Amino acid sequence: MNQQFWPQISSSFSQTVFSPQGIIFLFIVLGLIAGLIVYYIINQRIQRQREKNAPRVTDVGARKDINEILQSALTLNSRFDIRLEGTNRELFCVFRDIDKNFLILELPAKVKASRNWIGRKVEGFFKFRPPGQKLQFYKFESSVQDIIPASVSQLIALQIPASLRMEQKRQHLRLEVPLSYIKKFEVRPFSFDEKGHLYRNVQKFGDVIWRHDPEAVKQVFNLMDISGGGLRVRVDARELEGGADFIKSNPSLVITMEFIKDPDQSDDLELFHVVCRVRKHYYDGMGNHVLGMQFTHKARLDPETQAIANWEQVSLEEGVEDITTWVVKTHIRLYREKGLT
């Protein structure tokens, strides 16, 4: 090979790259790369902001529902815990009144509010126990609209929240499901197929261990409550032979649930297949074992056939979104029927 070949290439390359045209082309390429990087970063931030601002499945956003819930909290003397933006101090307030636009809260006696509170954002939390029901928990965001002098303690006016988030502290909202809503509830043993996959036909997991019998005079197995993260069941001790030994042999179980959306309106059903891990087990002293279970897998169903298309793992924090949605909607429907929200 000609020894002058490489020097010629090097010289030609240098002349091309470092020529005015080459430098301009290089800057264009670098500019395009930088532009793509900036676009990617901005797009990711926009997506995260959209996800942050998107309404959660546990949000109550209808103004009518919000007003009804707040009115129930007022009637039941609910305490409101609020925290002003930029502080870590929590103020325990008395819920005094509600009108078209504002919540009126009474501040603790030793707390002195100033006019610079007006306009500041507020995070709030309240709970109340409807007659014969469990505690219900709500979180919200608002802002201070006014400071109202009073004879003993000051009052503050908060903007009516745009939404209420239905959730327990660091937990999912739990629902005690009326028997009339349960169409099917079956528990099977858990296993894998020969390839180590979950069966797409629940019957292949094995025979039903326990099932809900809607016509039984005495329920030997029943659903106590359910949330997006898991559920609790009560089993007659005679139906759970071996107690703790059974749990050791069956740490996970497969559950098929079919709920009626609204027994008074239609026969439409909600079908769920889940795999649960037993997290808690105890004897209640009344002839029953109580099992607390956490969802670990959920079945994705074919929308037309309702057959299992695949199985997906369940996040501990997020739970099963479809179940959470059903729980929240049923919770609101039940309370509205009873006149509690």
In short:
The protein is of the alpha+beta class and 341 residues long.
Molecular structure report:
The structure is a single chain. The protein has two domains: 60-166, Electron Transport, Fmn-binding Protein, Chain A (Pnp Oxidase, Chain A), CATH 2.30.110; 179-337, Pnp Oxidase, Chain A. Strands 9, 10, 11, 12, 13, 14, 15 and 16 form an eight-stranded antiparallel sheet that branches. It has a six-stranded antiparallel beta barrel with strand order 2-3-4-7-6-5. By secondary structure, the protein is of the alpha+beta class. The chain contains five helices and 16 strands. Residues 50-57 have low confidence and may be disordered. The radius of gyration is 29 Å and the shape is flat.
Mass-distribution shape: flat
List the secondary-structure elements in sequence, H or E: HHEHEEEEEEEEEEEHEEEEH
- Tell me what the CATH architecture of the largest domain is: Roll
| Total number of beta strands | 16
The end-to-end span amounts to: 91 Å
Helix content: 10-25%
Q: Multimeric state of these chains?
A: single chain
Q: Ranges with pLDDT <50 over ≥5 residues? A: 50-57
The major pleated sheet works out as: 8 strands, antiparallel
CATH class of the largest domain: Mainly Beta
Report the mean per-residue pLDDT as an integer.
Answer: 83
- CATH topology label of the largest domain: Pnp Oxidase, Chain A
- The total domain count is 2
What's the number of helices? 5
Radius of gyration, taken over Cα atoms and rounded to an integer in Å = 29 Å
Structural class of the secondary structure composition?
alpha+beta
Strand content bin: 25-35%
